[in-house]
Design goal:
Elements (H helix, E strand, L loop, with lengths): L2 E6 L18 H4 L2 E5 L1 E3 L5 E3 L3 E11 L8 E9 L2 E8 L2 E7 L4 E7 L19 E5 L2 E6 L2 E10 L2 E6 L15 E2 L7 E4 L7 E7 L5 E10 L4 E2 L8 E16 L4 E7 L5 E7 L2 E6 L4 E9 L3 E14 L27 E4 L2 E10 L2 E6 L4 E3 L6 E3 L5 E5 L10 E5 L9 H4 L1 E10 L2 E5 L8 E3 L4 E3 L7 E4 L10 E5 L2 E5 L7 E4 L19 E4 L8 E6 L3 E5 L3 E4 L15 E4 L9 E3 L2 E5 L6 E7 L4 E6 L13 E6 L7 E6 L5 E7 L4 E7 L4 E8 L2 E7 L4 E7 L9 E8 L4 E3 L9 E7 L7 E7 L5 E3 L10 E7 L2 E5 L5 E2 L2 E2 L5 E13 L3 E2 L2 E2 L3 E4 L7 E4 L1 E8 L3 E2 L5 E4 L6 E10 L1
Antiparallel strand pairs: 1-73, 2-62, 3-4, 4-73, 5-55, 6-7, 7-8, 8-9, 10-11, 11-12, 12-13, 14-36, 15-16, 16-24, 16-27, 17-24, 18-23, 19-22, 19-23, 19-24, 20-21, 20-23, 25-26, 25-36, 26-27, 28-35, 29-30, 29-34, 30-33, 31-32, 31-35, 32-33, 37-38, 38-39, 39-40, 41-42, 42-43, 43-44, 45-46, 46-47, ...
Length: 877
């Protein structure tokens, strides 16, 4: 038989997937293990048992719900290095805790905002919430509610409010984003150019006109229903505008129409007959079943329709209140929404159906032309050309020209006034007929205003609303507040003005104006997260993109570019920055990637970093990065998984080191967040109660318990009511204040007074105890393999003769199911008592048995310290 010594002197790659079981040739295999549970990989390659999670706060009223496990989402709030907070967003509730040296102090616990309105946070969507914080304000976003702002009003107080956009001094203009949600050929038609309670219609004019489609003739039979052409209900695919035409005066006759509107709802409307002309019924009909005339008419009357076709545009949530002209949808999500006609705001107060509504015109439908001297005359012509970008008018529309200067020999009175559009030259230019003929060709006019209530395609709607959705993503970048990813515009980004975070007026595209841009890269990219790094990184459901930063140039409306990079997509887990890259979870929840700019490719790559530990990636839910965490100089990314474990990833690209380990607990891990070198986690205990805890660093207490309390023993009892309830079973470690020696005392049951009784251990000299839930530490090596003279022994029957284990501070240890004896020494506090003398250094363990898959298993079940530096295995072949 041959013997060979196989060293395992580094655990720098942590736990790896069993898919690597045959990669004995790989450097990863030699420096990794099959299981690394509740251990942390140190920079030197050794592993140390993780610190227990100290109990910091208990959430009253929140217990585990298997049908909806998302109960709380943690976020860090860092005002400065002296004022740091943890924000817990919960179902219709928000809590804020100030982070002190060893404790947390609650600064806010509320279910309403500062105006008394119930908070909109919903446990169904908590995981999807995104935040961005600057100074005193943290923005909390999700597509289903208007952004909320958590504001720090002092070092000890906070409140929540709904984010509000800036307004002009007269409150007639709101500096918010506006978007067009209708096709380019759709028009908005107001009944007047100013005032309140003005009716509007939304339609296209791509239909045909038929002025006697329903009826043509006279009526001598008195009041009653007219006989419609065809004698049956007339119906269209979309609603149409009804016209009544007469060559005589029939203004004394009222026509009542019964049918359905654009949405198929019952509709009744009426109109008085014309006096030698045409009148139009206010409501548009999709079908007409009866036309009632309340009197005779001898002149021929034609009842038909125009070329206007209604479109489904407005929200019609709920039921309609009535079928008469005033019938409306009182629950429509479009109520109180602002729309703009030529950038003039109107506020919707009534929704009649999906294409007609009533609104208040906040000022007037008057537009100041933004181009200086936008008028042009031609010699010997009475036509004046107007430059008005995206005017949306048609030939024959009436406009009112105001404040124009005299031009081309035409005086002010003949330039201004009510005018009719003569010709549409292009989408930005039209002409009207002036009151006189020009005697020169000239450009001018000053800064005129155009007022009109003519139908126009130049209309839009506020981008953020209940009906259109709110931003999914939020970030601060280059002194701008950036929103992105609404329900109706999932691939659009909205940038505030520089330094004015509540002003999103795009203005004239000046360098400091707001920016509104769509990631038009082919597919619709549902933006979920934004990260401000060297560039603005954009993480969407189906791709990764970025907006480049130009050297020595700010981001402006004219230089902004969106570049698509990789096609993997992100899940609903906030990406984090680690080791110079941005770490994100791929959309399928099975791969963790790092988004990193490479100078060689001049582009971003999304390399998988979880390939060697793919078995751990079980749909991560929350992610945070702790710098110099667990008392180590490295940075660690912590991710909670659907399996309720916590996986830890560390990376050191300069030294080509990366490791994965897995934490579990007696209960379940929930959300995590980090503040500098402190890592906080929410943990459900075995009773289902949710606690906020901190992985206490070694510099304070290295305790092998989760949800632990440090309590003073009084009369052989310790009060644990701040974390535990009657009948809870807890683990207890005895300690003192002299040298910090710890002794595991076993499990105890909390009594009816929320205390544990320690009278059986009164003689041990302990002054304090740690009370919590223990967790096991475990290391299982890869199969011990070696290359002999005739090649590798992989798969051959072989045994382990000796194990030389290098450990530090091992108070309890089991190797391959063999308990390792720990020697004793005299307790310096009580000379009559012996205490454990931990193993430090090399320890030899002899084993027996042969197998085709020899491994070494190192375990510790007691809640005491353990550090493993490496081992050498004597393999017998």
């Amino acid at each position: 038989m041959q013997k060979v010594r196989v060293p395992i002197n580094s655990f720098q790659f942590g736990e790896v997937s069993d898919s690597l079981s045959m990669r004995v040739d790989s450097p990863v295999y030699a420096s990794s293990v099959q299981t690394l549970q509740n251990m942390v990989v140190m920079p030197e390659g050794s592993v140390i048992k993780r610190y227990g999670a100290k109990h910091m706060a208990k959430y009253g009223g929140i217990t585990y719900d298997a049908s909806n496990t998302e109960q709380s989402h943690l976020f860090p709030f860092i005002y400065d290095e002296n004022e740091e907070y943890i924000v817990a967003v919960q179902h219709q509730q928000i809590r804020v805790y100030q982070v002190n040296v060893t404790t947390l102090t609650q600064r806010l616990n509320t279910t309403t905002d500062k105006d008394g309105v119930t908070l909109p946070f919903d446990k169904v969507y908590l995981q999807e919430y995104t935040v961005a914080q600057l100074g005193n304000d943290m923005f909390i976003c999700h597509p289903l509610f208007a952004p909320r702002v958590l504001r720090r009003t002092s070092a000890t107080s906070f409140h929540v409010r709904t984010f509000a956009f800036d307004q002009r001094a007269d409150s007639l203009v709101t500096f918010q984003p506006y978007s067009r949600f209708a096709d380019t050929n759709v028009k908005l038609d107001p009944d007047a150019s100013s005032g309140d309670n003005i009716d509007f219609s939304i339609y296209t004019t791509d239909g045909t006109t038929d002025d006697d489609f329903y009826f043509s003739g006279t009526n001598s039979s008195g009041a009653g229903n007219l006989t419609l052409n065809g004698g049956a209900t007339a119906a269209f695919d979309n609603s149409v505008e009804i016209s009544v035409t007469s060559t005589g005066n029939i203004s004394g006759v009222t026509f009542t129409f019964t049918g359905t509107d654009q949405d198929g709802a019952a509709l009744t409307d009426y109109i008085d007959g014309p006096n030698n002309g045409t009148v139009y019924v206010p409501r548009m009909f999709k079908s007409i079943s009866t036309v009632y005339a309340n009197g005779n008419f001898a002149t021929t009357v034609k009842i038909g329709h125009t070329n206007k076709r209604g479109i489904t545009y407005l929200d019609t949530t709920g039921s309609k209140s009535a079928t008469l002209r005033t019938g409306n949808y009182a629950s429509s999500k479009h109520l109180d929404v602002l729309m703009r006609y030529h950038k003039n705001e109107i506020k919707i107060d009534t929704v009649y159906n999906s294409n007609q509504f009533r609104a208040d015109i906040l000022n007037s439908l008057s537009t100041r032309l933004e181009i200086e001297n936008p008028l042009r005359t031609n010699n010997n012509s009475n036509k004046v050309e107007v430059s008005q970008p995206q005017h949306g008018f048609s030939v024959g529309d009436t406009i009112n020209v105001e404040n124009a200067d005299a031009l081309g020999g035409i005086n002010i009175a003949n330039i201004n006034g009510s005018r009719t559009i003569y010709q549409i030259i292009d989408e930005n230019t039209y002409s009207y007929t002036a009151g006189a003929t020009a005697n020169a060709s000239a450009d001018g006019g000053g800064f005129p205003r155009i007022e009109s209530d003519a139908p126009t395609t130049d209309f839009d709607e506020q981008s953020f609303s209940e009906v259109r959705g709110y931003p999914a993503a939020v970030e601060f970048h280059q002194n701008r507040l950036v929103f992105a990813g609404t329900l109706d515009e999932p691939d659009t980004l909205f940038f505030s003005k520089i330094g004015s975070f509540a002003n999103f007026d795009v203005g004239t595209a000046a360098d400091d104006d707001a920016i509104q841009v769509t990631a038009a890269t082919g597919d619709v990219n549902e933006i979920r997260y934004l990260v401000s790094n060297r560039d603005l990184q954009i993480f969407a459901a189906g791709a990764e993109l970025y907006i480049p930063t130009f050297q020595n140039q700010p981001l402006t409306p004219t230089n902004l570019q969106i570049k698509k990079q990789t096609p993997f997509g992100i899940s609903h887990v906030q990406p984090i920055e680690l080791d110079g890259a941005t770490l994100f979870v791929q959309r399928n929840g099975k791969v963790v990637r790092e988004y990193l700019f490479t100078d060689g490719e001049d582009a971003y790559t999304s390399v998988p970093v979880s390939s060697i530990a793919s078995h751990m990636i079980d749909t991560p839910r929350y992610m945070a990065v702790v710098h110099s965490g667990f008392g180590q100089p490295d940075s660690y990314a912590a991710m909670t998984t659907t399996g309720n474990n916590l996986i830890i990833f560390s990376s050191n690209r300069a030294e080509r080191k990366a490791s994965w380990v897995q934490f579990n607990t007696a209960g379940k891990f929930a959300s995590v967040c980090a503040i500098e070198d402190r890592l906080f986690a929410e943990i459900y205990d075995t009773s289902g109660q949710l606690h906020l805890c901190e992985f206490a660093p070694k510099s304070t207490q290295n305790v092998g318990l989760d949800i632990w309390l440090h309590g003073l023993i009084l009369n052989n009892e310790v009060d644990v009511g701040s974390a535990y309830n009657q009948n809870d079973v807890v683990d207890v470690i005895g300690t003192d204040v002299v040298d910090g020696y710890q002794e595991y005392l076993g499990t105890f049951t909390v009594d009816s007074n929320d205390k544990i009784n320690l009278s059986a251990y009164s003689g041990l000299g302990h002054t304090y105890v740690y009370v919590g839930k223990r967790f096991d530490a475990k290391i299982v090596t890869n199969e011990i393999d070696a290359s002999m003279g005739n090649g590798p022994v992989t798969g051959e029957v072989r045994g382990i003769g000796r194990i030389l284990l290098d450990v530090k501070d091992a108070f309890s240890l089991k190797v391959n199911n063999k308990n390792i004896s720990i020697s004793s020494k005299t307790n310096p506090d009580t000379a009559s008592q012996s205490i454990l003398d931990p193993i430090v250094g090399k320890k030899e363990i002899r084993t027996t048995g042969y197998t085709r898959s020899p491994q070494v298993t190192i375990e510790q079940s007691e809640p005491l310290p353990l550090q493993v530096n490496g081992l050498v295995v004597e393999l017998i072949v």
